[in-house]
Amino acid sequence: MSLGATRLADTSTPQRSVDPRAAGLSRFAGRVALVTGAASGIGAATAARLAAEGALVWLADVDVDGSAAQASKLPDAVACAVDVTDAEAVEALVGRVVATSGRLDVLVANAGVTLDAPIWDTSPADLARVLDVNVAGAFACAAAALRHMVARGSGSVVFTASDAGLVGWPGQAAYCASKGAIVALTRAAALDAAPHGVRVNCVCPGFTDTPLVARWIAGSDDPEAARREVAATQPLGRVADPAEIAAAIAYLASDESTFVTGIALPVDGGVTAQ
């Protein structure tokens, strides 16, 4: 799962994120990437990572002002509005990316929402909202992108799932169900795409310092206690920085992982090892 705007300064450790330019990495030079949920958090960090390694990045989000703010920091990046629950709008956006940029090499299907409620307090409407964004939205993005990638015989799709798709979390029945679906979707889509030279994978982040988790913590009975508890549950003793998740996504999207497809990669500080 992805921790919000308030950092855990008292429980986290200094981050040592790699500067891809300083490291001489240019794995995406000449390539075009589309990142959804790119206005903040993991999506924004991923867009920045791909751009730093040479990609022309399209940043898509329902928060177009947020995606525009992120795009303004990146060379040649394009901000665009999209509601991933609108399959026709998603199809149109992917078509626009291909028509404008000439290709689509990488899709990072990252847009997502969460819901803090036990299963008996989750209404059908609540469940539908979570599944519409997290599952149907990701499905629509992948389907639209894969049509172009399969036709070209190359490309990489990376979903943002969650360690909640691998283990259960109390009070997160709808979210866990949606992310478990993404893990299964990853495997099925990978098998569909593999004969065409296209790879599909997902990352399963643990608690990460993003606005999505900030809202989840803010809604708890005791937010400060919740922040401390979250950090304490991590074997590494802290939450992830979005850049750390972005680094894993970049690996799966790059040619360094050309024999990797259909995997769900935990990036969770050891939570799923327990």
TrEMBL record:
Do you know which InterPro entries this protein is assigned to? KR_dom (IPR057326), NAD(P)-bd_dom_sf (IPR036291), Sc_DH/Rdtase_CS (IPR020904), SDR_fam (IPR002347)
**GO molecular function terms here?**
oxidoreductase activity
Task: Give the enzyme class.
Answer: oxidoreductase
Q: Which residues form the Ketoreductase domain?
A: 31-210
Residue ranges, annotated region (Disordered): 1-20
Q: Would the keyword Oxidoreductase be found if you checked this record's keyword annotation? A: yes
Keywords of the record, alphabetical order, are:
NAD, Oxidoreductase
Q: Enumerate the CDD domains for this protein.
A: SDR_c
Question: Which first-to-last residue range defines the signal peptide?
Answer: none
Q: Is Hydrolase among this UniProt entry's keywords?
A: no
Q: Which PANTHER family match?
A: DEHYDROGENASES, SHORT CHAIN (PTHR24321), ESTRADIOL 17-BETA-DEHYDROGENASE 8-RELATED (PTHR24321:SF8)
Protein name, as recorded = Dihydroanticapsin 7-dehydrogenase
